[in-house]
Specification:
Oligomer: single chain
Number of strands: 20
Strand content: 15-25%
Distance between the termini: 6 Å
Largest sheet: 6 strands, mixed
Helix content: 25-40%
Length: 398
Amino acid sequence: MAEPSAAGAPAGKMVIRNIGLMLSGDLKNPILGADTLVAKDGRISGFGREADCDTTGASIVIDAKKTALAPGLIDSHVHPVFGDWTPRQNQLGWIDSFLNGGVTTMISAGEVHLPGRPKDIVGLKALAITAQRAFSGFRPGGVKVHAGAPVIEKGMVESDFADLAKSGVKLLGEIGLGSVKAGDEAKQMVAWARKHGLRSTIHTGGPSVPGSGYIDKDVVLEADADVIGHINGGHTALPLKQIECLCEQCSRAIEIVHNGNEMAGLHAVKIATQLNQLDRVILGTDSPAGSGVQPLGILRLISMLSSFGDMPAETVICFATGNTARMRELDCGLIEPGRAADFVFLDKAQHSSGVDLLSSIRAGDLPGIGMVVIDGQIRCQRSRNTPPAEKVPEITSH
């Protein structure tokens, strides 16, 4: 395998051939008519039929064995702390376990589980900058963790957001987990954050941990954060009528999480469908949390929304890939030239009642993962967490 370059991507060419199904991550065209993909130096350089692709000079060749290739999954809502450890459940290796669930990118909604988390303005800024730096320099299992998401507190002024932006912080933690819970206060701070290039998420629903609060539709609408965080509650959801209002009265991302109310999540997708706005739907786990760590949380959401929501699996997979990439302004999540070469190889689980991968997900089963690639590097092969896939890719040359 090619050695990583200074930028972290391999200085070499990867050819993936014999792909049975290529999923683009793009709602407008979720299935691509291609069986071959070429990546160079960790970026997609082209795809199509094998006869039309330049497959010469590859440093590694993968025979997909007719399995499906999809963009790596993106978890839009996690709560990391330091490294691959979570004090919430006192568990090591949770991010690597998510890798085995097909997740290649994570977005922090705040490093809120740090014991003794500082709540003064100097301390919260220092924590955010430290988390941003630490996860930029360390990628557990290769997973890209976009961290450094300060939980805003009363007393912050515009210069604090400017300082954070200058220091490389690009996110705000869940609004409502700190002392700022009123709509007018949140609105001002969201506006300052947006002015300085920081993207924001707001807590929605009942309190999840001590110190958080109940955030109803009126606060969410007034704050106007970029992402309606766990619109299906984390864990306790708003009444369905309020969820309908949030979908109808704003244009921000509709985030559905694993650690939320499943009925409310299905209802939000139903309303987004009626509005013809499925491009707003993104997926997260909202973990680690009191209910634990869910390495297969994104896959379980995909299966749940497809089966109970009566929706094509290839559409739901876009929620966890291209939709999130666009909402979060990421360079991954889509099969497009120039995008990061982040992939998950999927196949029908052994003994599933479905006739193929997509129908098995539609039937409510989880797929099996045969390989995960990040920035053109193989990070895991047959998953230790999913049910065994019927077929798995094979490295044929390197």
